[in-house]
Design goal:
4 copies of one chain form a homotetramer.
Chain A lengths: L1 E4 L5 H13 L3 E6 L4 E6 L7 H5 L4 E5 L19 E3 L2 E3 L3 E2 L1 E4 L6 H14 L3 E3 L17 H14 L3 E4 L6 H5 L4 E4 L7 H8 L5 E4 L6 H13 L5 E5 L15 H10 L4 E3 L1 H5 L2 H14 L4 E4 L17 H17 L3 E2 L1
Parallel strand pairs in A: 7-16, 8-9, 8-15, 9-10, 10-11, 11-12, 12-13, 13-14
Antiparallel strand pairs in A: 1-3, 1-4, 2-3, 5-6
Helix pairs in contact in A: 3-4, 6-7, 10-11
Chain lengths: 338, 338, 338, 338
């Protein structure tokens, strides 16, 4: 920890900072500059919260040198983690594609999609049973019945199932059916929920909040890891910016940054990341090119009849085209589709 | 609903849109322009989700004319709602100030603050028992013990208590102690939580998410209202922008906008809205000047020893100055402090 | 300058950083931590650009301790600067209101507005002769004829004139007519233009860019000051965020921040800051309450016939109401209108 | 144009809107809904600015159906435009890479870089002679001498030269040396400058402002096209968001969007788009994968000695790796490097 003092800080102010560092078990070292004093605190970097020092009299700014997360960091574990989700590995050389409808709508519909995906190169089936919706008047998902249909589709096709869990008390119920528990973007900082999925041993697909920095995203992962569940897959799905021509701004920089900071696999959701069907394929290609460890996309046999997100769902022909094009990109970079 | 077709949409495309509108009980009317066709759907504005039409072939854009919320709107209820929280009215002429520490830390400390606030013009006591923290390694609050201390402070001082609830299964526990249930910014779109507090009849302080539009904020309120709980107080607490010189960007525009769109009271949190003690008082004055119905501020007897948010907490002398200055502004505009 | 090395930086890397600091005339001091080395460079804080050190091998991050601007800083000049603009002081106790149409449209119209403002409490007249417009097909202003009309309005009413200059080669022409040269938000980082107005001795109204940090804004002021022109008035006019219910997000935090960092006067433009007539008055009140040294607002006798920005222009009755209300707020805080 | 009236608008309000539409040569058509009236204006979509109608009494919102730009649109010109820059085609199947130092620093250095690029697969040479810098105390470029050195490097290597022009009065001078005139991100809405380069017939590289929407970017291109210069190359270089782990957020969505809206070529700058050398190559791969028509990257033989932007400059070995990897991606998608 580096404490930068105001130019007009008094010797007493400096003394108070040193004392606070010592209380936390850090060894203070004072560097006297021409304009101001800078104090280093040597020792365990997580011993003291920078905010608690910033508030001391005469302190201008505190610079934290170390990363605030530990278990999620590359320093803690240099080798990439491979998360196996129902037999599908995320984080290895092969790139799995998770696909399916935004919401589970009906048995026939879901089986049609799952059967198609099985043949067309999908590695896992996504589908919402519990749906977070901005308006209380929008379709909220089939709930328990949706979970049952997902399990049925898995039984028929063998595809592992990824579905969202929205509240701590749902975790047990959803975990009984799903292979991967999805935490949606709006819940990335729902800490009781993170802890609840952290207490399971199910793989967790942690979507980046549309308002979250990469550091906050990794701290959210840390919440899960700290509970003892090491099976976390990160998913970039677009952030909120001033731009309105797409629903979100897919942040592929964040994929490269996250891959350099953490050993966890990082996948990309170009459906939410763009919000428009016509941009999903080019951004899926870009996601694989930047180094993503997987994709998750929305697919619907008749997007214009979907109960939610039809606008950004691919139809079957488009999904086939996506598979073909991202496979070409993957191979060009020495990887392949799972 | 207004459906704008692509310049190259076919008559079949137009027919399909009309059919979909009719299915939802809307009466389609086609306006043939020079460049393109525009279709109106007359009837119940919430009968059909715009997204479901936007996905149809040949559709360029759907414009929704009506507001997506109803119970929260001024059209539904033109007169301002006054929410009584433990005897303190929010939304009338008088402006209450909620104040207290970020976290409840100890019995002695809390009683010291509450006693001071009682004398210095505070209308209600805030204090976190359950704390959402970005890092799993930060202080997470005293939990149940914190609730007990808040109730004790109320008993001693008579100040009603505002405290945060973080998960649906905590609602009953927190509601047993608190006068107002606070929903934090990170939970503004935690829909199961909104529904859970909506099923109580306790007043709810709904903080705006730091990446939420005013419309999303009012839709979050609608979730609570739709469950039957009409006692919602909105709270602007700053949004996330590119600017880094303050912790958040306090959006006082949003107060004026919200006051024009909804009958619910709107208060302001200049502590989180700025993140720096020295800016809290000027922004509190501005909040009252723009028309806020209340304030919520962090106060700590010794901010440099606070376990969280010390950086943005006022000390006692500063709180007294705040009360004096916002009172002067309130009186200049024909209002007063509660 | 503080240079934070990677945990795996070599002694050679450290040596190279020390050498670079010495080359720039700084005295390096090495602090050996448990996890990594931190190097201080003592001496003139502007001797070396942090970027040039960050690029050295083994460097993780460079923290610049001092502010990058000097002439604009409170450290350089602790007392507030009062800028006299055609006899109107900005930065003292009295708060001047600049008002007028977005664009100068006609002689009769301009004289009608100026005459009204003179009587109603306006301190200076604003009006665009050269207009920056997003589309090449929008009305671009009357140019030279607009300047002539502004000068005429000043002659008739005595109100000093504020008008925008868009290019270095226009500076001489505009300065021949205007009392204050306005730099628009889109030109805040048009450095040749800043240098050109810096070479005059006319007061400059420097609008904050809608995507500029406070630091960048003060650096833009520094460009003008560094050319020898000390007469700079800063103007907050709203920043671009994700929120769409207002045209911009008026950042009143930035007024408090800027007032603490610089001695220059800071005024506020609630017309552009909100983009909607109905929100201009509440935000003008808030601006004065936060501590602004002036206001600039758009006024038009018949906003619905304005050639530009009618949407955010006040009519005459509204302007009178604004004057009354902000005067009340100013007096409550011990200030007054000019 | 579609005018949505308030629910409480009067018949007189409706009449006034109709009259205004008629004045502008539009034919009004009134659609009476259940809750409110909607008025269509049929005819030339650019006859009337929506803002001028939004200001009329009783109007809630105006929806503009057509795009505000014309010459830049796909509707105007369905086929892709190929811009030839000193013999290098942008917008065809082949993908050119522009590379070079941030600033021109010396004759020997520039010739070393240019010679290397010639051999390593660079298609054009970039280098700043006039540099826009946030601080007046940063290196501002060599100016005229820099232009001379660029011309010399072209003479020696045959690579066409791309360099920035910052003010209208510099256009002639820069155009005498450069093959492509670059408009920097901060100048994207410097309208006099856009008009000045529009009056030349030199190709223009128009960087997207870091605060500009795609629509504003295309309107900036329209300024150049409207002056008669059809040779515009668009360049995405990252936008400003809340994320701080990269210098900007490279918006590859915008490349896909722009390619669908305009016939102009779109290239990508991963150096400014990330701000960190280590992320340049993955984002360059992604840019080509999304469909970019070219790249522009910063290269320096010894980035740690660069006078500006060393942090984001590739060294020679890294540039060679970039060429190899993007070539593989291009070929996978049926394209190739120029």
């Amino acid at each position: 920890m580096i404490v930068i003092m105001h130019p007009h800080a008094t010797p007493d102010d400096v003394e108070q900072v040193k004392e606070r560092l010592r209380q936390a078990g850090l060894r203070p070292y004072v560097a006297q500059g021409d304009e101001r004093v800078v104090i280093h605190g040597h020792g365990n970097p997580r011993a003291l919260d920078g905010q608690q020092v910033e508030t001391l009299r005469g302190v201008e700014r505190v610079v934290t040198v170390s990363r605030p997360y530990k278990l999620a960091s590359r320093e803690f574990r240099p080798e990439p983690t491979v998360v196996a989700a129902g037999g599908v590995p995320f984080g290895g050389d092969a790139i799995p594609i998770i696909a399916g409808p935004c919401s589970v709508e009906s048995e026939a519909g879901l089986l049609e999609i799952a059967g198609f995906l099985r043949r067309a190169g999908g590695a896992a089936l996504r589908g919402g049973a519990f749906k977070p919706r901005t308006s209380p008047y929008s379709f909220q998902g089939l709930g328990q019945e949706g979970l049952r249909l997902l399990a049925l589709a898995r039984q028929v096709t063998g595809l592992p199932v990824v579905t969202e869990v929205m509240a701590p008390e749902q975790v047990e119920q959803v975990a009984a059916y799903a292979d991967v528990l999805q935490i949606g973007a709006r819940n990335m900082q729902n800490f009781p929920l993170l802890q609840a999925v952290g207490r399971t041993r199910k793989p967790v697909l942690l979507k980046r909040g549309f308002m979250a920095t990469v550091e906050e995203w990794l701290l959210a992962a840390e919440y899960i890891l700290a509970e003892g569940n090491p099976h976390v897959i990160l998913c970039e799905r677009g952030i909120r910016t001033f731009e309105t021509s797409t629903r979100n701004t897919l942040d592929l920089n964040a994929v490269a940054v996250a891959k350099s900071l953490t050993h966890l696999p990082v996948i990309v959701d170009p459906s939410h990341g763009t919000g428009h069907r016509e941009y999903v394929i080019p951004l899926a290609r870009a996601a694989v090119a930047v180094g993503a460890d997987g994709l998750i996309v929305e697919v619907h046999p008749r997007p214009d009849q979907a109960l939610s997100d039809g606008n950004q769902s691919l139809d079957f022909a488009q999904f086939q085209q996506l598979v073909e094009e991202v496979e070409a990109v993957a191979r060009a970079l020495g990887r392949r589709l799972f």
